[in-house]
Amino acid sequence: MRNYKRRNSFGGSKKKKSNLDYRQLIKSASQETIKPYEAKIEFSEMDLNSVLKANILSKGFSKPTEIQEATYTPIKAGENVVGIANTGTGKTAAFLIPIIEKMLSNKRGNLSLVIVPTRELATQVQEEFKSLTKGLNLMSGCLIGGGSVSRDIKFSKGRKDIIIGTPGRLMDLINRRALNLNNVQTLVLDEFDRMLDMGFINDIKRILSKIENRKQTLLYSATKDKSQAKLIKEIAGNAKVIEISSGYSANKNIDQNVIKVDGSEDKFSMLLDLVSEPNFDKVIVFAETKRLVDKLAKRLNSNGISTGWIHGDKSQSFRNKAIKQFKAGKSKMLIATDVVARGIDIDDISHVINYQLPQSMDSYLHRIGRTGRAGKTGVAYTFVDL
User: If you ran DSSP here, which 8-state letter would residue 113 be given?
Assistant: First the structure.
């Protein structure tokens, strides 16, 4: 890599100081041969509704993943579950498949509520639900900011089997007295560690107060925070904790590197030089601020690198289009704030780049978890301003 010595306004020096020690972010991908998990049973052998089973098989899944196999029986039995597993291990289907099976076997109905931290994750969960329930006449709604309020109100007043939403939109509909959650029997908090962060906790508690008669609570995430243990117990009681990963370390399939940048170097040119190297096929770059995301995307595009970008100030249609184009390979890079770090299912991400040092290890783990999925090796780079 060339050594640049021009000061550049894209260094992000005004961001809040990170608590991370960058030396923790230098790790080689495991050289061990990781044997894929072999489930003890195939989906075709499981006691599932025939249409649900056919839908699962039509998606190309013959056997459950480890987290799917481990949590299926306790969820179907009605137990509270806390599931911890790396990204790319099928956590969404892990809670949806048993929930759907319960919906189909319980003739009195089993209204479920899935709460997620981001619009993108909510959309993804609904898409997964629809693909699993094709032909089963089950009704789902995705209640998220940026969508039509009138449409959400209409859905809230009609027949429904599952509600998928973000805390803000759910509270808005509750405050409008358009959404009644009294009949919710199953609650899922997906990416629960972030859901319990200070930015969400008050809305979560208000929503929980509306569904005090629920029969089952499920919490899923790739990581966990020890400081949240008391709150998790308050929400899920004596839940069965199933840890496929410890929740404290990165996927061993990710080669982690740092790039040190002193005050005289041109950081953007270093980024441009890096992503122009061979094998940088599908790259996500994370930045800390919306303003910097906009600047990076504009400049990368002007340098001939097809780049999409998303953050919280962009409309939902803009964000959906950017992700769709990135998934389809129409753009090589996607620049984002942490809005896409949680649960976005994009296959074959070759590299994740942190243009700035993330604020916490939790944020770092979720970001780099976009690569190295499903047994593949990924690469992560983090720029460190000296």
Answer: E
